[in-house]
Specification:
GO molecular function: phosphorelay sensor kinase activity
Strand content: under 5%
Transmembrane segments: 20-38
Enzyme class: transferase
Catalytic activity: ATP + protein L-histidine = ADP + protein N-phospho-L-histidine
Structural class: mainly alpha
EC number: 2.7.13.3
């Protein structure tokens, strides 16, 4: 009876070792399989990320492509493209505004520079200096109004 008990204990010990190896191998296999499945499932997200990273201020006309896009990501892609539309329109408005502003400021600055150069080119009487300073004051006020309208 004692010998039988020893044999059973040895058999159970061997079974435990085999069970431990089987469970370890199963856990490892499940981990690798889970990693492969999640990697494959996240492929469209990585593709979308690469597309988004290619878009910058110089390339606001680009949009996120819907090819091979799973239906779960379609609302995100559409929302990002709508955001890009708004950004592109905003940058276009800002660009037009700064072009218009530069043009509007060029005139008074040109007037001020031209009048000052005239004034410095030859001597004038007090009345001419006064008239030029009044004109310059008007141009300064015009510039101040432009700056106030920007704020």
């Amino acid at each position: 009876a004692g010998r039988m008990l020893v044999e059973r204990e040895q058999m159970l010990a061997a079974y435990r070792v085999k069970l431990w190896w089987a469970l370890s191998l199963g856990a490892l296999l499940a981990s690798v399989l889970g990693w492969l499945i999640s990697r494959r499932a996240l492929r469209p997200v990585r593709h979308l990320t690469r597309q988004a990273l290619a878009i910058d201020v110089q390339h606001l006309h680009l949009r996120l492509d819907e090819s091979a896009m799973p239906s779960e990501l379609e609302p995100l892609r559409a929302a990002l493209n709508q955001m890009l539309n708004r950004l592109e329109q905003g940058f276009a408005r800002l660009s037009r505004f700064s072009e218009d502003l530069a043009h509007e400021m060029r005139t008074p600055l040109g007037n001020l520079m031209g009048q000052t150069q005239q004034l410095l080119h030859k001597d004038r009487d007090a009345e001419a200096y006064h008239a030029l300073l009044v004109s310059n004051q008007e141009e300064y006020e015009r510039l101040a109004r432009m700056i106030d309208s920007m704020l």
